[in-house]
Amino acid sequence: MRLTTRRTFSISMLALLAACGRPQQTTKFQRYSGPPITQVQINKGQRRMHLFSGSTVIRSYDISLGNQPIGHKQFSGDGKTPEGVYHIDRFNPRSAYHLSVGISYPNERDRAFAESYGMDPGGDIFIHGRGPQGNNLFPQQRDWTAGCIAVTDEEIEEIYAMLQPGAAVVIYP
After folding, report:
1. What is the number of structural domains in the chain?
2. What pTM was computed for the model?
3. If you count Cβ atoms within 10 Å of the first and of the last residue's Cβ in the chain, which end, N or C, has fewer?
4. Which of 77, 110, 88 is nearest to 170 (CA)?
């Protein structure tokens, strides 16, 4: 081999070996190019969440709920997941639960009810992944959140990419 050929071969082999030892770069941010998600329906009793485009179910997921899953969230700290009509209002790429998508709880009715009892209605209700804490609690504890809706970390990556601000969220008992 000539010197330049040998040098090129050596550099190529080093690059190949270096690439083998390097972990692949992965990202939790996916792209979605399907039909727009117009509504999220959550059925607390069935522990299922469905993402709709119009009247077509695009994806469905098993979910975990608040640690007191029966009944509508009324006050801060009650461990309940809200029931009613809300919308997607924010996205948190730095969530302690991998990724999270905010739900517009409390609405005016929720605030008025809590205030009539001199209480705080609570807030910060999200659809989120499990993150390290949830992975430690699930599956021993099916409903473990403080009132949020939890899915796996892989599923929240998909959901995060599919949802847009303003999409309706309907939460059934």
Report:
1. 1
2. 0.81
3. N
4. 88
